Amino acid sequence: MSKTTAAITAVHGYVPENILSNKDLEKMVDTNDEWITTRTGIKERRIAKKGEALSDFGKEIVDGILEKRGIAPEEIDMVIVGSITGDYRFPSTSNVICDKCGLTNAWGFDISAACSGFLYALDIGRVYVENGTHKKVIVIGGDVMSSIINYKDRATCIIFGDGGGGVLLEPNEEGLGIQDSILKSDGAGREFLLQKIGGSLAPITKENVESEDQYVYQEGKTVFKHAVKNMADVAVEIMERNNLTADDVAWLAPHQANLRIIDATANRMGLNNDKIMINIEKFGNTTAGTIPLLLWEYEKKLKKGDNIILAAFGGGFTWGSIYLKWAY
Ligand code: UT7
Q1: Which of 37, 155, 172, 218 could share a disulfide with 7, CB 3.0–4.6 Å?
Q2: Domain limit, last residue, from 150, 175, 200
Q3: pTM to 2 decimals?
Q4: What's the structural domain count of the chain?
Q5: What pLDDT, in 10s, does the model give residues 204-259?
Q6: Ligand 1 shell residues, CB under 6 Å
Q7: What is the DSSP track for 79-116?
């Protein structure tokens, strides 16, 4: 009997309208377009409107998926959200999205894995589909990074942007969909990329909020070194263990943190540039949003049966890779 796999059957993305360009940032911090472009590949990023929260991104994404797939809200069994910028610390943004979209038969939760959030969430979703208990699972990755970025800190504000995307996972009997996953973490990396206050370790107080430690802190060089090595290692590992050569891989969908990290990963995999999904120049680093946003933008170019490798590295540290066969 053939094994039921979990396949992506629809994808949708959302980015806010407001654009923050490198030129705009030149007026805010000591930086310039040339530095940002050559060091990161980013030209502009999107910024949410005041009051626009992750669940508002989620509503656009879910509504888009339902419309594309031609299904009713009641048919969805589960919603998993990968994000570090949910509407609240609790309840989960999954709960809020289910309410806003009328997903009355769904349950769900949020996953905190920074830039690897979508990969972690996708792998959890696939288990529920493969075991037969859930038929329609929506997996969302997205972040409103502008809500936790200090726009006086040039080390971080030039990189991050807002946006997200999601996919519908359904059972597949043709062997398409998710084939394999390798997910990793190393908590020793937490000190290099984090929000220092606001958690149970250091709740926000009147005093510590003046330190501006409620914003993202990143030691870029250290994170860069770990990202280059680990994202490439894990992408190569998943190719090797599935006997995939560079010729077999149709697309790499890499986390969009820095064009130099993306290039290093693709080089190690032996992939030509025309197989790498890239949109970092338009959206910057949307944390858990980058990979579903890529799938959304490249959807029309994807063919049934295409071998696609997803790979990410981020805060935690967390990293990983998922190998899937495109199902439509
Ligand atoms: O997505 C989650 C995981 N995150 C990542 O993967 C990000 C990984 N890190 C990076 O992408 C890079 O480290 C950054 C883009 C954040 C920084 O690039 P870098 O090449 O590592 O720069 P750096 O921090 O080593 O700084 C190089 C120089 C320094 O000047 P000196 O000391 O050489 O005179 C910095 O002060 O560039 C300076 N610099 C800037 N100059 C203009 C740092 N930030 C800026 C800036 N504009 N925004």
Answers
A1: 172
A2: 175
A3: 0.97
A4: 2
A5: 998 898 889 999 999 999 999 999 999 999 999 999 999 999 999 999 999 999 99
A6: 31, 35, 39-40, 115, 154-155, 158-159, 193, 220-221, 223-224, 227, 257-258, 261, 285, 314
A7: EEEE-S--SSSSS-HHHHHHHHHT-TT-EEEEE--GGG
